[in-house]
Amino acid sequence: MKHALLISLFASTLGFATQATANEPHQIGAQLNGGSAKYKSSSQDGDGVAELYFFYNYQFDPIWSLEAGITTGAEVDDWDCKDVNDDKFVCQRDNDALFKLNANKLDYNHFSVAAKAQFELTENSDLYGKVGVLRYDYEMKNGSKRVVDEDGFGYLAEAGWQYQWQNGIGLNIALRYTDMGDLDTTTLGAGISYRF
After folding, report:
1. Where are the beta strands (DSSP E) in 86-182?
2. Rounded to an integer, what distance in angstroms lies between the CA atom of residue 71 and that of residue 73?
3. Which residue ranges of the chain lie beneath pLDDT 50?
């Protein structure tokens, strides 16, 4: 009885591995995100961020996969443009202090590992969700003077929609929340990927 159970368990594990291999389990991609940030729950108009996310995803079965990725991000300055006359616009960079701190520059990056579940809508499109942990590092500066320099562990959550063509190319739209200790970001993004 014990041997039959072990053989059944081994066969089902092998079946999942074979299915994942047969269905092209590897995926690489990039996603561009933009949104807002809060530092110690403080935010103000203009505390926007943009980030680029590169990832590798391994699909275990039709629902579950594991994803590892690297994100790099920075603040996005507002621009104030005025119509001087009918033919000319003058734009100035709005270099207000971030989060009501004496800082005007934010840079961050993190490495993340996440579990992802996807649920089929049609043959080529899915809704998905993922949760994961990350190792982050960020700093805020005023010119060359460092105002905040933090690193540590945090988490992320993302929900989105993805479409996959038969040739392996895919597109996705995602809403992402990232917790980096005192710094939180909420972004909306679009990405492209390739499954092989």
Report:
1. 88-94, 105-120, 125-142, 145-164, 169-180
2. 7
3. 1-22
